């Protein structure tokens, strides 16, 4: 039995098209329904969505402790990495939810909070500087799962980066990360396990003296929205319900994340189903980008450079069009960005010029036809998938 | 395939927006992604193919699934505005079909409308 406390929100993405009701709570509850013998979702649910959420839970055998709210919220995305401004929270928080179970997964929520009590509890605050214990929550054993900048103690370093005009980054530098972990573990009430998500499906597990790095596992495509929820609930199931070792549970969570992002695919696969999934290798070295197309494509090249830097890459060359392509750059081009209005003739010209990129992003229904010109490249119609494949490649 | 959709129904995208409803309240139309996609079945499907929409009950689980003409379940319709209404209409005997907009081993997006 596992209880999930978490939000139920609408999610809308333009590329790829996505328009569903999930949020961390509903997604995690549906996810774990395939592997847990009993799941309960504790959540605030907007009145106008209540019947549909109840029907959704019933479709997966999940029970609900649902509290009606009057504040539907939608998270909007341009693509799976780019979330637009978050919705406005309610003017005043709703009364706290109270959750008690052997195993509890608690997410931070927009409407209010959950006070939880459990033997094994996983806490994903989804915000900076949130404290598990401050609302009276208790846990026999606590695992905290966070993004790098969500760790308490990173806020000052984050503010300093911003004030110095440094580019955004998905993860803090190593020193900031370790200092934040040490500070967290020095607290009188501290989590026994800390998992830091790397944003591309991998994790760092802090339990004993040495951090353990869990690689991201290879996925064909990358639908990032909600992937962290899946990581959290897969870990909660394996560590909380099955009492697996934290590192083993984290490997399962990372494999489940790779399974999810290929769709998105819910619910969770069993450990046996994902046991053969191979780790991926993180990108090292400089990245070379070439853009084929008009003005908007040049803007996309610059934006892509920023995104890859955010994901931890180092972009060395940005080239607009074949005329600008120096012969030295022909070899080792990592990403070719092709405009949606480009023709196959232009791709053929690029191939004739000797371009053999690792990844081709072409948001066209003809994207797969790029393989005839670049047979060794990964062809992606989806932007987030293209970025993912630049940053991670399957281990050979 | 457009012949299945009554002309007076405006296109809606499903999800968080309520489905467009006219007439007897069961002229629903929406786009959504299937949950619990069966990889082996979905991988063999093509854009434009039609699936049947039906109610399934298994123990305490009651769901709406999309299945091929051969009876193979592709996935479950869930997590969108209008699901409970769709279930109610199916219980009244109203028939629906799902037009595949995109299908692969890992994802199946459909547009559902009244038969």
Describe this structure in words.
- The complex is a heterodimer of chains A (396) and B (115).
- With 396 residues, chain A is α/β, with parallel strands linked by helices.
- Helices cover 28% and strands 29% of the residues of chain A.
- Chain A folds into 2 domains: 2-278, UDP-N-acetylmuramoyl-L-alanine:D-glutamate ligase (3-Layer(aba) Sandwich), CATH 3.40.1190; 283-394, Rossmann fold (3-Layer(aba) Sandwich).
- Chain A has 10 helices and 20 strands.
- In chain A, the strands form 4 sheets. A 9-stranded mixed beta sheet of chain A has the order 5-4-1-8-9-10-11-12-13. In chain A, strands 16-15-17-18-19 form a 5-stranded parallel beta sheet, covered by helices on one side. A 4-stranded mixed beta sheet of chain A has the order 3-2-6-7.
- In chain A, helix 1 crosses helix 5 (227-241) and helix 5 (227-241) runs antiparallel to helix 6 (246-261).
- The mean pLDDT of chain A is 92.
- Chain B is mainly β and 115 residues long.
Tell me the layout of helices and strands.
The complex is a heterodimer of chains A (396) and B (115).
Chain A: E1 2-5, E2 9-15, E3 18-22, H1 23-32, E4 39-46, H2 50-59, E5 63-69, E6 74-79, E7 82-83, E8 97-107, E9 114-124, E10 138-147, H3 155-163, H4 174-185, E11 193-197, E12 203-206, E13 212-214, H5 227-241, H6 246-261, H7 271-274, E14 280-282, E15 286-292, H8 295-310, E16 314-320, E17 335-338, H9 344-352, E18 359-361, E19 378-380, H10 383-391, E20 392-394
Parallel strand pairs in A: 1-4, 1-8, 2-6, 4-5, 8-9, 9-10, 10-11, 15-16, 15-17, 17-18, 18-19
Antiparallel strand pairs in A: 2-3, 6-7, 11-12, 12-13, 14-20
Chain B: E1 29-33, H1 39-42, E2 50-58, E3 61-67, E4 73-77, H2 83-91, E5 96-103, E6 108-114
Antiparallel strand pairs in B: 1-6, 2-3, 2-5, 3-4, 5-6
């Amino acid at each position: 039995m596992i209880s999930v406390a978490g939000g139920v929100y609408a999610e809308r993405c333009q590329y790829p098209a996505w328009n569903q009701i999930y949020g961390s709570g509903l997604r995690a509850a549906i996810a774990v329904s395939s592997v847990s013998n009993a799941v309960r979702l504790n959540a605030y649910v907007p009145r106008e969505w209540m019947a549909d959420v109840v029907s959704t839970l019933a479709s997966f055998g999940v029970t609900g402790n649902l509290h009606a709210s009057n504040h539907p919220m939608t998270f909007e995305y341009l693509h799976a990495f780019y979330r637009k401004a978050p919705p406005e929270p309610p003017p005043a928080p709703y009364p706290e939810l109270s959750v008690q179970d052997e195993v509890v997964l608690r997410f931070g929520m927009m409407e209010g909070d959950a006070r939880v009590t459990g033997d094994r509890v996983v806490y994903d605050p989804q915000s900076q500087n949130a404290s598990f214990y401050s609302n009276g929550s208790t846990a026999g054993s606590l695992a905290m799962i966070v993004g790098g900048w969500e760790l308490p103690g990173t806020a000052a370093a984050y503010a300093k980066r911003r004030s110095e005009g440094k580019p955004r980054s998905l993860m803090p530098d190593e020193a900031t990360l370790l200092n934040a972990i040490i500070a967290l573990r020095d607290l009188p009430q501290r989590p026994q396990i800390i998992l830091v998500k790397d944003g591309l499906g991998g994790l760092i597990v802090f339990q004993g003296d040495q951090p353990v790095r869990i690689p991201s596992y290879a996925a064909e495509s990358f639908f990032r929205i909600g992937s962290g929820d899946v990581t959290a609930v897969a870990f909660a199931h394996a560590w909380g319900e099955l009492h697996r070792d934290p590192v083993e549970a984290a490997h399962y969570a990372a494999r489940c994340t790779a399974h999810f992002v290929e769709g998105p695919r819910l619910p969770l696969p069993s450990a046996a189903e994902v046991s053969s999934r191979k780790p991926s290798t993180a990108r090292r070295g400089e990245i070379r980008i070439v853009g084929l197309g008009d003005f908007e494509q040049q803007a996309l090249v610059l934006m892509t450079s920023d995104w890859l830097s955010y994901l931890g890459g180092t972009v060395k060359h940005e080239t607009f069009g074949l005329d600008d392509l120096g012969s030295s750059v022909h070899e080792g081009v990592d990403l070719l960005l092709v405009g949606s209005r480009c023709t196959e003739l232009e791709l053929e010209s690029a191939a004739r010029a000797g371009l053999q990129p690792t990844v081709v992003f072409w948001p066209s229904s003809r994207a797969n036809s790029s393989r005839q010109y670049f047979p060794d490249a990964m062809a992606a119609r989806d932007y987030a998938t293209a970025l993912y494949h630049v940053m991670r490649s399957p281990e050979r | 395939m457009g012949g299945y959709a009554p002309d007076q129904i405006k296109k809606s995208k499903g999800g968080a927006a309520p489905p467009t409803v006219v007439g007897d309240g069961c002229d629903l139309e929406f786009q959504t992604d299937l949950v619990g996609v069966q990889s082996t079945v979905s991988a063999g499907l093509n854009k434009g193919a039609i699936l049947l929409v039906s109610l399934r009950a298994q123990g305490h689980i009651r769901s709406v699934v999309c299945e091929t003409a051969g009876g193979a379940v592709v996935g479950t319709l869930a997590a969108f505005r209008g699901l409970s209404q769709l279930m109610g209409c199916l219980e009244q005997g109203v028939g629906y079909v799902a037009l595949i907009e995109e299908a692969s081993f890992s994802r199946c997006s459909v547009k559902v409308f009244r038969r």
